[in-house]
Amino acid sequence: MSKTTIIHTHALTKTYGAGRTPALDRLDLTVEKGEIFGYLGPNGAGKSTTIRILMGLIAASGGQVRLFDGQAPSDIAARNRIGYLPGDMALWQGYTGAQVVSYFSKVRGVDTRAEVARLRDRLDLDLSKRVREYSTGNKRKLGLVLALMHQPELLILDEPTSGLDPLMQQTFNALMREQRNAGRTVFLSSHVLSEVQAICDRVAILRAGQLQAVERVDALMHTDFRWVTLTFDRPARPEWVQGVASVHDASADGNALRVRLSGDFDPLLRAVASQYVVNVHIAEPTLEEMFLAYYDRRATVAAPVR
Ligand SMILES: Nc1ncnc2c1ncn2[C@@H]1O[C@H](COP(=O)(O)OP(=O)(O)OP(=O)(O)O)[C@@H](O)[C@H]1O
Ligand SMILES: [Mg+2]
């Protein structure tokens, strides 16, 4: 199956002011048609900077961007094929949602009424309210309507789910899958692993302006482990779980025993069965830990046989 590249960057660099460390440092990224691509990184990593360059809102300091069939971000024709949700959306406070939608539909020159009604119902958004009356989450929903209503080939969404409640996140996820099923491409930024895990085909990790990794999510998810903390009624001892299959890195802190568990719970529970367990806490690994585990495993697998 031949792939069609929708976003391609090469050595893309942005420095805000002379002598400063680049906010984006020689980024090489390729996003293919029909994928949901997650762009992850902590605050200040350079996600919004990348997105603003892709949207032609700020100029890069170096490197190249190509969209669709080789267009530059400044190309109006390319921009018309994109739906954009800014991270910091500023809208006219006195307009109703419907007025904002109507204004942007006219700018787009597309009849978006049917799609707007559909999105409004799906997102449960009251378009008769004024922008100033909307909560953070409702503003986000309005932004999503604006980004999606003309059914663009490419969606570029900067932290789309920030402010959405868990139920709305599910709706958002469903909407994104529908986009993909319709052959459209989604590029979304986030710093929340769980939302990226649920919908993205591939993720890129950015840190301090530098691309750390790009991987398929399903490959990462096979690196499954959890942090399990068992609290006992007495000081915990790592020896209790020594040699237990699926338990790694056991450490005790007061009455708490923290282990890295990969695989089933049963061997761990049996090992501590003679103790009184007060509490069990299970935490998902952070994305970073997952990547580390993934690369560890790959390094082990790829190690040359001597
Ligand atoms: N207009 C600007 N002028 C100067 N520095 C900027 C500007 N915009 C961003 N930066 C800096 O560039 C770096 C990357 O910022 P950016 O907003 O791209 O990060 P981000 O990954 O989107 O973070 P967040 O998760 O907080 O939204 C940060 O160090 C930030 O302070
Ligand atoms: Mg940002």
Topology:
Blueprint: E1 5-14, E2 24-32, E3 36-40, H1 47-54, E4 62-67, H2 76-79, E5 82-85, H3 97-108, H4 113-123, H5 136-148, E6 154-158, H6 166-181, E7 185-190, H7 193-199, E8 202-207, E9 210-216, H8 217-221, E10 226-232, E11 247-253, E12 256-261, H9 266-271, E13 277-283, H10 287-302
Helix pairs in contact: 4-5
Task: Describe the model.
The protein is 32% helix and 28% strand. Strand 6, helix 6 and strand 7 (185-190) form a beta-alpha-beta unit. It is an alpha/beta fold. The chain is globular. The longest helix has 16 residues, at 166-181. The model is unreliable at 301-306 (pLDDT under 50). The protein folds into two domains: 5-221, Rossmann fold (3-Layer(aba) Sandwich), CATH 3.40.50.300; 226-284, Protein-tyrosine phosphatase receptor IA-2 ectodomain (Alpha-Beta Plaits), CATH 3.30.70. It starts with a strand and ends with a helix. Bound molecules: adenosine-5'-triphosphate and magnesium ion. Adenosine-5'-triphosphate is lined by residues 16, 23, 41, 43-49, 87, 191.
